[in-house]
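Worked example 2:
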Amino acid sequence: MDSIAFFEQLWQNYTAKTPSAAKVKALFEAKGEIICNDHIAIRTFNDPRVTIDVLSKPFIAMGYEPKGEYHFKTKKLFAKHFEHKDDPNAPKIFISELLLEEFSMKLQKTIDVILNQVQPNTFNAKDLILKGRVWPKPSLKIYQELLEESEYAAWMYVNGFCSNHFTVDVNKLKSFESLAQVNEFLQTNGFKLNSSGGKIKGNPSLFLEQSSMLADEIEVEFKEKIKKVTSCYYEFALRYPTAEGNLFTGFIANSADKIFESTNVNRKCN
């Protein structure tokens, strides 16, 4: 699969779980905008079978290379972002992993059991992040137990491998002069924003402002019953030039920490 087809399939999988993103994109396009992706985010565990290094392989093959590293002590996460070597317009890739060893033995064993249910060659597939949940139908009891320790682990258990968000490149929008105007546009059209840490995370002095909608909710068929859970969300990023005159291409850990909460079950919104 070539890179264009790969990203198109990733988008299709994402919008199937996040219909609000397709609606927002259509609203922007109705104003004459051409939407460009600033970055795409992916979640995983630091289990050797599915680490960042494993999930980044198809992107490395497309010409991406690792750039920044980020640590989230409270959420017990590590992340890397990747940029294309030759194409500055290619979306950046942000992959985070849950640091399993920092959680209880119960959670560690639960994740190990979940991954052990998958044929090992599945994790070697070049299109793993297009496969979604590759383990059997989830248990509501296990989901709720994971939720008590980690929203991230519970989310991964039901959603599997996919993009947890795409991000609109606000710098390339013509009808909006600020991220605040984008947020107002979204709220006027009935979309709820993640207000954890403020509706806008970051500021010009950090060279990056970000905001995000709350994740959609989708019905998941658990072993016990069907229940709605959070899926994925749409993000918006505005970048500023550094002292060298180039747009900042990295990420701010404190801002990303709050953006992660867009998928939380109990989310702050405006």
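The chain has nine helices and ten strands. The chain has a mean pLDDT of 94.
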